[in-house]
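Fill-in record for Iron complex transport system substrate-binding protein.
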Amino acid sequence: MIIFRPALVRAAAVLTAGTLFLTGCGSSVTAPSEPGGQSAAAVTLVNCGREVVVDGIPEAAVGMHPAQTELMLRLGLADRLAGQAQATAQALPDDVAPLAKDVPVIGDVKPPSREDLLAVEPDFVYSPTTYEFTAEQGFASIEQLEQAGAAVYVAGGGCQERRMTGEVRDLFTDLEHLGRIFRVEKAAAELVSSSQAELDQVAAAVAGVDRLRVAQVYVDGTTLQAIGAGVEYDILRQAGADNVYAPDQPAFAEFFAATITPESLAAEQPEALVFAAYDEQHEAATRKYLTTTFPDLPAVRDGRLIAVSTSDMFPGTLGNVSVVRRIAEQLYPDAF
């Protein structure tokens, strides 16, 4: 068990440095949190199987993806951010972007290097997955960050042991934990409440529909992958889809994505295709591939090719909630 003391960490010297693809719902921004965190009692929680104790409110937090940065901004923590990572991977929503204008950007579309992350002297690092801490990629590992005095929190759905079974509602646990860590429980509860209300509205709308068979795919050039587990699977389930690919299938026994052949997808005859894209060019290229490769597929023939942002499919983001509605509205427009 490691106890993190933010004030002491920032005064001490930082240790010297020695893609997997896969935004927000209409939420408000909370007023900044009150100062005086160093006198606050320690917070103990379990995250990704690790016990983390945060002694005092973090003063130098880093969001390892814009989605995590957004969550902290919406909780009123702009003055406690020491860095925003992967900032060019996704634009912050217009209503919170101005709050981040003075927050240093570290890294571009990729996670920051070990040296760049340690240079901002973080005392709290919040990431969507454990990938951002892959030492072999040149990133700071969780152990290195802990040695430097930073508490590390990974979105619940992005924990290695949870990656295959993650759900949209894992975000609510993350928000509860953030509320405790930063002493903004009320703001966190309000975000949970508004997000749950949006999910409930979708559930009510799709309750009586004849569910369409939907396949979720990712296209990289001519490589075709099926998505059948994790939060991505739960997003489709909550949108009212009858998932073609599911966690109980052998292809997804060890990983939430699996490379498939065009013939195998064609054999499934999905009535809709959901695909993730990281920019407009990628979306256009994916649409072209799907329409030219599968002209007779019901999903293509009936015009049900639904593009979503890769960022909205990352575990532990507000986009997980809003994309449920967007997919449901395109699958069942008459229900809304």
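KEY FINDING: The chain is about 30% helix and 20% strand.
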